[in-house]
Amino acid sequence: MEQDSNKFKDYASRLIKEYSRPFSFEEIHSHIRVKQALTFLEINKCNRILEIGGGKMPLFPYLVNFDQYVLVEPIQEFVSSASSQLQCSHRITIIRDFLENCQETLEEIGFDCIIANGVLHEVTDPRSFLTTVKTISHENTISYFSLPNAASLHRLLAKEMGLIKTIFEISNTDKKYHRALVYDKKSIISLMNEMGFSVIDFGTYFIKPFTNKQMEELIMKGIFDMKLIDGLIGLTAYLPEYGSEMYVIAKRRYE
């Protein structure tokens, strides 16, 4: 599977060049999040892909070689946005619904890969959500989950500054983006094991030293540029536990 990585570099660079206009750092964070998920798909050579909750940046516009892609997205605004980007509709299906409501249909397809990019921490019942993902999975299905990291460098800094009492505290950014829970490595792996998954891999990505608001200000003032953002992405190799977000790659466990 190939991905159009140049689209990402151009997109992020354009955002930073337009720092004179108001923007949210979450736009750049989303770019990094999607690129990480695409790397997973490329490594695992996935041909039948289920994406749960693509939001503003679904994966399919950046995919080249795949047989079937299904997007399940409950929010009409995001469904409309995704539909407007369709180019090879015979391979792509967009379903406006919650995952639990289309379980039987999805179970029949037999996906190679299931992507829940920035979703698990937003659902009201993560155990029910994971149960559905497990039911949809077959023996060879690999699932990818990404979510904020409680042990992110910027959360640790905020705790040491006395801005938050614990790294698990729900921040203003969490509230803005409807994040119900904050996990760290131990708690997310424990949840996966509890729900019948075998964790294949875990990692974090993007060392974010400051809050979203502070990052926005640094970009708008021209202090941070794309080269620095790329450096913070690469810095995870030296600080592997402290990225702003983490990913878990898992398979359904058969007893």
Description:
Helices cover 38% and strands 17% of the residues. It is an alpha/beta fold. It has a single domain, classed as Vaccinia Virus protein VP39 (Rossmann fold), CATH 3.40.50. β2, α3 and β3 form a beta-alpha-beta unit. α1 packs antiparallel against α2. The chain starts with a helix and ends with a strand.
Secondary-structure element order, as H and E?
HHEEHEHEHEHHHEHHE
Structural domain tally: 1
> What is the fold-level CATH name, i.e. the topology?
Rossmann fold
β-strand amount: 15-25%
Number of helices: 10
Strand order of the largest sheet: 3-2-1-4-5-7-6
Which secondary structure elements does this structure contain, and how are they paired or packed?
Blueprint: H1 5-17, H2 25-44, E1 48-52, E2 68-72, H3 76-83, E3 92-95, H4 103-107, E4 113-117, H5 126-136, E5 142-148, H6 153-160, H7 172-176, H8 185-194, E6 197-205, H9 212-220, H10 226-234, E7 245-252
Parallel strand pairs: 1-2, 1-4, 2-3, 4-5
Antiparallel strand pairs: 5-7, 6-7
Helix pairs in contact: 1-2
Could you name the key traits of this structure?
globular, 255 residues, 7 strands, seven-stranded mixed beta sheet, 38% helix, single chain, alpha/beta, 10 helices, Rossmann fold
In short:
The protein is of the alpha/beta class and 255 residues long. The protein is built from 10 helices and 7 strands. It has a single domain, classed as 3-Layer(aba) Sandwich (Rossmann fold), CATH 3.40.50.150.
